[in-house]
Specification:
CATH topology of the domain at 6-19 and 53-200: Glutaredoxin
Largest sheet: 5 strands, mixed
Shape: globular
Order of helices and strands: HHEEHHEHHHHHEEH
Strand order of the largest sheet: 1-3-2-4-5
CATH architecture of the domain at 6-19 and 53-200: 3-Layer(aba) Sandwich
Strand content: 5-15%
Helix content: 40-55%
CATH class of the domain at 6-19 and 53-200: Alpha Beta
Number of strands: 5
Structural class: alpha+beta
Length: 235
């Protein structure tokens, strides 16, 4: 899925309040408010981008980066159909260090709100919230978005005031802009989902299957001198 130009994305990030209705004149600060986290530990062998959110062993032989958008139906399909087995097979076994990087696809203000909510409280619940937003797509694509997002926020320990403060925080919006700038100007990403394996772009016009990832990870392990993973086949 392609995404709008960066100027449109930045405008969307700034205009997240339109999604929620008028924000209160004075907003409550989010609990344990913190700048966008650096999820990649300093000891990671893999270079980090602004605001990376990662899972797994930072010294794993393979680094898989996924550019995703919370309004991307293909990303939601990957999250539901491929990611759980990919995580069990590679991330949980220490063979892959996985990093999520953010883009905004239309409606960009919805994707921005979802990512800003996921980063509330320093991103402590980032991956569970991302998963829940993906799973909620059918509910808000044809109806009101705020009640669905607020339900997700409360399920992850946020009050309504904290949720509103997170998704309308000016500094958080600026950090999101920096992440978008890195995506377009440094990694030259043109759509979601986009995957890099040890810095090599996975080519293809469709969402990668588990078999596609098996092959790319196997090649990366071979190049790194590690034995290729043994699999029983993929999707």
């Amino acid at each position: 899925m392609t995404f709008p130009n960066r100027r449109a994305l930045v405008a969307a990030a700034v205009a997240v309040t339109a999604l929620l209705g008028a924000a209160p004149a004075v907003q409550a600060a989010p609990a344990k408010a913190a700048p966008s986290p650096k999820a990649a530990p300093a000891k990671s062998r893999w270079p980090a981008a602004p605001g990376d959110m990662s899972l797994g062993n930072p010294n794993a032989p393979v680094h898989v980066v996924e550019y995703l958008s919370l309004t991307c139906s293909h990303c939601a399909a990957f999250n539901a159909e491929v990611f759980p087995t990919f995580k069990t097979r590679y991330i949980d076994t220490g063979r892959v260090y996985y990093t999520a990087r953010e883009l905004l696809t239309a409606p960009a203000n919805v994707a921005a709100a979802g990512f800003l909510m996921a980063r509330c409280n320093g991103g402590a619940r980032y991956f569970p919230i991302v998963d829940q937003v993906f799973k909620s797509q059918p509910r808000w694509q044809t109806g009101s978005i705020k009640p669905v997002f607020l339900e997700i926020a409360k399920a992850n320990g946020l009050t309504e005031d904290q949720f509103t403060a997170c998704v309308t925080d000016e500094k958080a919006g600026e950090a999101l802009e920096a992440r978008l700038r890195y995506a377009t100007e440094t990694d030259h990403v043109t759509g979601t989902p986009t995957f890099f394996v040890n810095g090599v772009l996975m080519k293809g016009d469709t969402v990668p299957s588990l078999g596609d990832l098996d092959a790319a990870i196997g090649q990366a392990m071979k190049a790194s001198g590690k034995p290729a993973p043994k699999t029983k086949g993929g999707r």
